[in-house]
Every structure is written in C-alpha cells, then in structure tokens.
Amino acid sequence: MRILFLGDIVGSPGRGAVIGNLARIKEEQQIDFIIVNGENAAGGRGITPKISIDLLRAGAAVITTGDHVWDQREIQEYLPTEPRLLRPLNCEQDAPGAGSVVLETAKGKVAVLNAMGRTFMNPPLQNPFTALDKEVARLRDEEGVRMIVLDFHAEATSEKIAMGRALDGKVSLVVGTHTHVQTADERIFPGGTAYLTDAGMCGPDDSVLGRDFTSVVWRFRNGLPTRFPVATGPVRLCGVIVDLDEQSGKAEKVERFSELIEEAAGEEK
User: Fold this and answer.
1) pLDDT digits (tens, 9 = 90+) for 207-232
2) Quick check: 204 pLDDT over 60?
3) Which of 12, 206, 214, 251 is the Cys-Cys partner for 194 at CB 3.0 to 4.6 Å?
4) Domains in the chain, please, with CATH?
5) CB 165 within 8 A of CB 200
6) What is the pTM for the complete model shown?
7) Is 200 left (phi over 0), alpha (psi -120 to 50) or beta?
8) Of 39, 32, 31, which Cα lies nearest the Cα of 14?
9) Taking a C-beta distance cutoff of 8 angstroms, is the pair 73, 50 a contact?
C-alpha cells in the first residue's frame, strides 16, 4: 500500500495546485491512497463544504484539519454529513463530526486519525495521548485495521516526536502538520511506524507560511495589527509518501514529497 499525505493547503493557490495536479501525481508516484490537510484551504482559514467536495472529487480519500476547522461557520452542519472530512479527535466531546474514519480499499482497510496537540495551542482540548491510545486500540481490536495514519496537528516539535514514539508499533504513520515548514527528519521507528515532524504546506512558495511576506515583515517590524493576505505565485506541494506492508501495517519506506507548481488556478473561497 502506497500512501501520499499532503500538508496544509493554503488558500486558492494551494487548493488550485492540489486539485489540478493530484491525478497526475497519483499516477506518476503510483499512489494507492491520498490524504490532504485542508484546514487553511478557504482563504487561508478553515474549509467550506464546496472546497471539501472539490478536494474529494480531485482524488483525496480523506481530508484532515486542525485548529482552524471551525473558522467557516457552514462547516459545522456539513461535518456530520461527510465522514471523510475529519476534525481533531480530541476536540470537546460535543463537537460535530468525527476524528477518525475507516475506508475499505482494494488492498485492505485504511484508518485515518486526526488529533491536535495542546502545547502552545489555544482551543480547549482533551489529552491527545490518552484519546489516541483509546481510539487506536479500538481500531485495531474492534475494526481489525492495521494500516493506520495519524495527522497530528501541533506546534511543538517535542510533542510531535513524543506522539510518534508513543504510537510506535501501533500505527503505520505519524505525520505532523500546522507549522507549514517541511522538516527533514523522516524515519521509521523500531516498531515499524513511519514518522515526519511536519509535512509542510501546499501553498505559495514565495511567502511566509503561505502569506504575503511584505505584510508579515511589516507586522514584525511595527507590532501593529494588519491583514495577512494569501500570497500569489508558484505553489510548492509538500508532504510525505509511505509504503506499508498490507498485512502488518508496518512501514517499509518513507520519503518526503516536494514539488514546485509554476501555475496554480482557483478563486478565493
């Protein structure tokens, strides 16, 4: 089983590049299953039902999110209707939607989990370590799933690495999102779990985390409030590709994915 995970999609440029190139990348890289993080896809903040539908139609099997999942109001009613769009598992218990999904594929069941770290993060959250221990055990024991992927949306690298170690041998891949900067620490832990601290983003390459760099620099210099519009120009798609043993779910190979797309189309929101 070959899985592609793409990091945070940022605004119109990011989603235009993903939607326009996903089928080609799937064929070229011989991908079986695609997961994308869409929490910044709507103008850089949140995701809408239409964008979710467009990403799924383009070839994404599952869409994960993070701390911006609630930024577009209409998503609250949509989430319970689309199980392939996840919100963090450790949100408050009455939050709409779900933090995990199991899908049948030609090569067996694949489970995708979405959780959020608590260090330097603002939303009220349950402990992700205990929440994931419980859900991973349920998926393995009750659902019989061995191929399990976790998008851990977190700020602190230490929390992400600790999560990877905590779940080693229990899941197939732990990949971090949220910081929008791809790290170079991909590896397979002793128990067979592939790991990458941050997948990076799918957004404008000439930017600060996908935002127009002139506005961000101005804010750092002056310390005054300002808008951070999504940048324009060529888009870099970043993520990770992992090869799994279909029976055990253990990772056999993990590699970073990065590709510059010179032209990306799409209208904001």
Assistant:
1) 999 999 999 999 999 999 899 999 99
2) yes
3) 251
4) 2-261 (3.60.21.10)
5) no
6) 0.95
7) left
8) 39
9) no
Catalytic residue (choose from 68, 153, 178, 180): 68
The rounded distance, in Å, linking the Cα atoms of 184 and 153 is 17
- Would you state the structure tokens that stand for residue 171, as one six-digit string? 């899941």
Model confidence pLDDT, tens digit, residues 32-66: 999 999 999 999 999 999 999 999 999 999 999 99
Sequence-separated (6 or more) residues with CB below 8 Å from residue 143: 102, 109, 111
The two three-digit tokens of residue 176, written as one number: 């971090």
Give the pLDDT of residue 14. Answer: 97
Mean confidence (pLDDT) of the chain: 95
Token couple for 151: 């998008």
- 38 phi and psi angles, rounded to 5 deg: -115, 20
For tokens 């929440």, name the residue: 131
**Exposure b/e, 200-212, CB count within 10 A at least 16 = b:** bbbbbbebbbbbb
Q: Is 178 a catalytic residue?
A: no
Strand partners, 4: 34, 241
List all residues 6 or more positions away from 173 whose beta carbon is below 8 Å from its beta carbon.
3, 5, 148, 149, 150, 193, 194, 195, 240, 242, 244, 251, 254
Q: Return d(Cα 28, Cα 261) in angstroms, integer.
A: 15
